[in-house]
Hints:
The chain is 52% helix and 13% strand. By secondary structure, it is of the alpha/beta class.
Amino acid sequence: MSNQILQNIGLIGLGAMGAGMASSLRRAGYNVHVYDIRPEAVSAFTADGGVACDSAESVADACPIVISVLVNADQTEQLLFGAGGMAARMQPDSTFVMCSTVDPNWSVKLEQRLEAMGIGYLDAPISGGAAKAASGEMTMMTAGKPAVYARLNGVLEAMAAKVYRLGDQAGNGSKVKIINQLLAGVHIAAAAEAMALGLREGVAADDLYEVITHSAGNSWMFENRMAHVLKGDYTPLSAVDIFVKDLGLVLDTARATKFPLPLSATAHQMFMQASTAGFGREDDAAVIKIFPGIELPK
């Protein structure tokens, strides 16, 4: 049995993406230690193997590499530096892999803070959805020191089909991710607007979906998210409030250099409207619910 197979890897956050990533690491032969604030998520994963931990600190004690798949910078900050913070428990020369969508400037500063503690850091946002995370085929947008990549040899590739190396210090991974989120958010908003207009004009939803998905106006987001609308299923795989946050990060980044983003600003307002109307925790396709006078499929 190789050293790789015996290596302990920690993963914090067993949501839609994190659970799939943990499973991919386990299939690759790593000894995966997991923690989530939801005990049922930990139990579901460890039922098929892996090690359940009762705290993030326990993960840090056991694992020289810890992967964080939390929602935002605030949660990551609390994980590392809050009461009983994990950073103080991480081993010398250990590595922290941050997979959340965050302000790139915050990621740059986090690298500096962790390096001062002797901890390596990889700026490593992810994309691809739950299915690709579960199959080990997602995309990682990474940036970090060469020494950090050396410590992670084989680990990133176990989780992702595409691992992009975008620089030798933190920041560019998060910059590329928020640009991806700009496109994703605008595409979802545009898809919802198009479907809403079709419904308002009396076109059958199934017919519109069939034609658009075989025409030049199609997008991955139209095909994926409008399928949720056709089913009347707004179970959150990626919630409306995620795009309130992510498009907010996009606009904050552009505002700092006075760069105009009119489409992003409009899409952000659409998601804000949906959230204010009570749909924030529904699937992001629920942005279609802001349009008046349409009858949605049930």
